[in-house]
Specification:
The chain has 4 helices and 11 strands. It has helices at about 1-10, 40-50, 80-90, 115-125, and strands at about 30-35, 55-65, 100-105, 110, 130-140, 140-150, 160-170, 180-200, 205-210, 215-220, 230-235.
Length: about 240
C-alpha cells in the first residue's frame, strides 16, 4: 500500500513544470472501467483521485456490471458502460475485457493499477495535434457547445457525446469481494449520451440542459469507439 501511494505521488508530480493550468488547451481523456465487486480495483479507484486533481486530465469512471453476480450489485454500474468497454476491445482487436482498465484518448489500453504506465500514456497524448476546437459555455438556457474543425479530420462521422458525472461519492459495501469496506469513488459517470453526429465540414453549435448538481463534459470521438479528437469539461 505504501508503494502504491508513493507511485501515485510520482504520477501526480509527473506533469511537466512547463505545463500550467492556463496553458492547457484540451485535457487528455482517461476512462477507467471499474467495479465495486472487483477486489483488484481499489488501487485504480484511488488513482482516480490523483488524476482528477490534474488540470490537464479529464478522468471518468465507468462502472461495469459483469461483477454483480458475485454478490454485490455495483450501484453505479450500467450495461451501456460494459458495452462501451467491449466496443473498445473490439476496436483494438481483442475479444476479452478486464477490470481495472484505463483507456487513454480512446486509443491506448493501460492496466489501471500501474500509475507509472498511466502517467507515461498521458504524457504521450499531451503533445498530439488537436484538430477540433471545442468550447462549452453555461448560459441561462443551458450549456452551449461549439465545435469547429481547425485541422485535418478523419473521414466519416464523429460523435458528440455529453457525459454527466458526480465528482465524489462514498459507498459502504456489504457483500462480494470488497465486503466490509467503505469506498470513495471519483468522477463517477452517471449519464452518457450522444447528442449529435458531426461530419466536420462546418461548425456545429447546440445547447444541452445544465447539469444541476453533477459535472459535465463533452467528448468528440470517431465513430466505432475510435480515437477521441476533442474533449472539454464545463468549469
Amino acid at each position: 500500500m505504501m508503494r502504491f501511494a508513493a507511485l501515485a505521488s510520482v504520477l501526480c508530480l509527473a506533469m511537466p513544470a512547463a505545463i500550467r493550468a492556463e496553458e492547457v488547451d484540451q485535457p487528455v481523456v482517461v476512462e477507467l472501467f471499474t467495479s465495486q465487486g472487483c477486489a483488484s480495483c481499489p488501487p485504480a479507484d484511488a488513482l482516480m483521485h490523483k488524476l482528477v486533481e490534474r488540470e490537464d486530465v479529464l478522468a471518468l469512471a465507468f462502472h461495469v456490471d459483469y461483477w454483480d453476480y458475485i454478490g454485490w450489485k455495483d450501484v453505479f454500474a450500467d450495461p451501456a458502460y460494459t458495452q462501451r468497454q467491449k466496443d473498445y476491445a473490439r476496436a483494438m482487436g481483442r475479444n476479452m475485457v478486464h477490470t481495472p482498465q484505463m483507456i487513454v484518448m480512446g486509443q491506448e489500453d493501460v492496466h489501471a493499477a500501474d500509475p507509472l504506465k498511466v502517467g507515461d500514456a498521458i504524457k504521450r497524448h499531451q503533445t498530439g495535434a488537436q484538430p477540433v476546437a471545442l468550447d462549452l459555455t453555461a448560459t441561462a438556457a443551458g450549456v452551449e457547445i461549439s465545435v469547429q474543425a481547425r485541422g485535418a479530420l478523419p473521414k466519416g462521422a464523429l460523435r458528440v457525446d455529453v457525459v454527466r458525472f458526480t465528482p465524489l461519492r462514498r459507498v459502504s459495501i456489504s457483500r462480494g469481494e470488497l465486503a466490509g469496506r467503505t469506498m470513495a469513488y471519483a468522477n463517477i459517470v452517471e449519464d452518457w449520451q450522444q447528442v449529435a453526429e458531426w461530419d466536420g465540414q462546418e461548425g456545429l453549435k447546440l445547447t444541452v440542459p445544465l447539469p444541476g448538481d453533477q459535472s459535465l463534459a463533452v467528448l468528440v470521438q470517431e465513430a466505432g469507439s475510435g480515437p477521441i479528437v476533442a474533449a472539454a469539461q464545463l468549469k
